[in-house]
Amino acid sequence: MNKMENMSSVYDFDPITGNIPATKVEVTVSCRSVCALLGGAKSGESLCVLYTQGVETKQWREFGRTEVIDNTLNPDFVRKYILDYFFEEKQNLRFDLYDVDSKSPDLSKHDFLGQMFCTLGEIVGSPASRLEKSLGQSGQPREAFQNGNGIPGKKCGTIILSAEELSNCRDSATMQFCANKLDKKDFFGKSDPFMVFYRSNEDGTFTICHKTEVVKNTLNPVWQPFTIPVRALCNGDYDRTIKVEVYDWDRDGGHDFIGDFTTSYRELARGQSQFNVYEVIRLFFFRCIVTLLSFSVESEFTFLDYIKGGTQINFTVAIDFTASNGNPSQSTSLHYMNPYQLNAYAMALKAVGEIIQDYDSDKMFPALGFGAKLPPDGRVSHEFPLNGNMENPYCNGIEGILEAYHQSLKTVQLYGPTNFAPVVNHVAKNVTRTKAYAASVQDGSQYFVLLIITDGVISDMAQTKEAIVNGAKLPMSIIIVGVGQAEFDAMVELDGDDIRVSSRGKLAERDIVQFVPFRDYMDRTGNHVLSMARLAKDVLAEIPDQFISYMKSRGVKPNPAPPPYTPHGLTHHHTHI
């Protein structure tokens, strides 16, 4: 049996192609002789961005970014890309290299250095799964790239891509090192040492897998403990060589090499002992002693471990009923009910809800509206039940929510403004007497997902940020889908991928918000099934990681999976919001 066959999971399933990945591969990026923009100077700060191409649209979407590396023309990036590998698909990849000029996440603010196209199959199929190609010269239009070698003309260095199939090892090792009698490298002071860890590859080369922090001005450093997946350290091969290099940090990026030593995971696993005291050698000369102070290992739990152990995913939807949506009786309205096709609100709800409902045992979902005047007195509400029942806002399945949504459009008056905080707080707090909310369920048995569908610019940004910061302490995630053609720049601020949301000087404990504009997922041919599949795949992709980050932060472990068959069934207490 292929050692990777058991790694696929429900959230690895590709709703667009219907495929389940046979394996995952880890792609490592290095560059050599990168052209600096200014003369022969060193490149300032290098960043590599990976894009993948959509199967149907052929549009490029950003997949991820490496870390930024200072002052070198030969960057070896530590951050890896983990990709699902499909033998039967042409998986087009694009790697863009930038010289970073500021801390802005906007790539247009940085200098574009070069670009290379390839397929994942090319990398995997190359000798030793190592592909080396030229980067195209910067300063030319990207449309000029017609082949895998980038823009014709002057080369801008080379990019080296290495792929390795991941084992299914789920252990993570936590270790701490110290050193003494360090070789003094700085003329006016002591050294600023750091260590770099490499795992060996099957072809005898080495791949960087961890850098410690720099400990300033000492010859006897004690580095902070760090945690690393065992698969990253040795890919599950306990006897594979691990090389450790010790450097003296220099501001200009020309770090001084002190020396190195080799070990293995099996040796490190012995913990603090005479076996884990290493002489660091350079050119046969002794440089210092590095000692392993502590070593521990624990198994990482997956999203499916919790699902198998009985964790329920509770789904709540909140729909924007502000006047900017347009009169629902007119075909130009975003709320218009075309008898022949779903509107954008219904499509977004159905796309996300039909996947999440599989993790909710009773399929009863709270459905809320905001920004409308309610009968009979015309009061404005930002958290009203779509079914009109304040005591029991639950709808039976996704179809029940759609039915309640349609009925609400006939009874309420679209108004405003666009306030999110009330519905976020509604999910986060115990505001009803009959149901337990996220704030009262912190034992890992429940997780809550709020889907907000909106057409406009948020009106209560400060209050919403505060609600998100408070919600980040709870077992909940928030998905915001923007419909229509409005500018959604403010929404990006709530999505904490690049900059964590903060309120009143407090940072959110974790990123719990995912925002996407639905228009980016609309199929040009009018294939709404494909549009909905793309939307669901993207907005739900972060939920498992957000789920795990919460459980880890609270030390919550999954319950043992129940036996596959129980003759009389089990009574499970289910909680909703």
TrEMBL record:
SUPFAM superfamilies: C2 domain (Calcium/lipid-binding domain, CaLB), vWA-like. The lineage of its organism: Eukaryota, Metazoa, Chordata, Craniata, Vertebrata. GO terms for molecular function: calcium-dependent phospholipid binding; metal ion binding. It comes from Hippocampus comes (Tiger tail seahorse). GO terms for cellular component: plasma membrane. This is Copine Vb. Belongs to the copine family. Residues 558-577 are annotated as: Disordered. Residues 3-135, 137-278 form the C2 domain. GO terms for biological process: cellular response to calcium ion. It comes from the Eukaryota. Keywords: Calcium, Metal-binding, Repeat.
